[in-house]
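Incident log entry.

Two folding requests arrived from the same account within the same minute. Monitoring flagged them as a possible duplicate submission, but the sequences differ. Recording both here for audit purposes.

Request one:
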Amino acid sequence: MPYNPIVISDRLAAITLDLEEDHAGFYDILSYEATASLPEMVGWFEKNRIPLSIFVAGNFIERNSQILEGLSSPEFHSHGYWHPPLDRMWQTEVRQRNIRDGIAAFESFFKRKPAGYRAGCGAIKEEDFALLKESGVEFDSSFFTGIHVSGIHLFRSSRPRWYSPPGFVEIPISAHPLFRFPLSLSYMKLIGPALFSFPQQIGWGLHPLVFDFHLHDLVETSKTKALSPFWKWVYERGAAGKVMLDWISMVRDQGVEFVSMNQLNARLAAKARGF
């Protein structure tokens, strides 16, 4: 599908949380132990005046709406309804039903359409953008732009995109400019934070930066202990909270402006009007 890359010179960063069950996609039985850490984590972002954008799954809303009712500062968007199994998530019917059911659950609770959408595990295709647009969504942030468990996208640019038609913005999750690992807490824990810090420190930081994390990246749960040896090693590796906070502090020290995903989309859409 044809698109125009949206080039901005502003040094911007958006911090995003995918709010879902613990270790989504690994187990059939849903668990939400990590959810207990949500108020404290949101409080840290409030205290430090850093916008937090949360992509929340529909099945999370249905089972945990009470914890969302006390949160006023984060910006909420749709994370679909659930994380389909890896062997089914790319099927057209599964992808598009996930969109419809996720938006329906979101609208039922928040009494509005979500401005943004992010598919579980990045399982979305350009052909789905028309459905998102028709559903009242303004932008998507599902694309991974490097090496990810959902696939390898080495030649996919991290730059935001404007699709016309249908008149829609894609804001990819950032990847390391050289090694193409996603800019997410799980990969920082796996590889080490230094690899993700030096591009910003030497002026190679992406414009914009879109960072992604999950609560189960920060909190050990009973599901963490039951993972396969490899994944258990990944999730137990490193002091996740310190890794994330140190990286955020480093980015702030470099003079980068933190924005919400709605604020970022507004700037990108304004640029796209010139196409």
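Request two (distinct sequence, not a duplicate):
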Amino acid sequence: MTSPGPYRLTGDKMLQTLDNWDRLMNFRVQLIACGGTALTLLKIKESTKDIDLIVPVTDEYKKLMKFVKSIGYQEKGGGWETHSDQRMAPHLPGSFEPN
């Protein structure tokens, strides 16, 4: 099996990112993986090009948007990215609405 290209994410890399977030967060958020993200986490696909997540609870979504902004992610092209590794930016649809 060949390794994924430089702009692809494996399930292990996605889980590592989410685990890192979990260590930094002082709240819980329900996340639903969809698209290539779900297929990669289920090991149906080897990798995906981005992370697609749904946050079904509005208050949790708002908290998560504040959190990702606080750790250096920036809104771009309908999703979010971080300069430290643009491939690790999840695609979180919607706009950031500060309280």
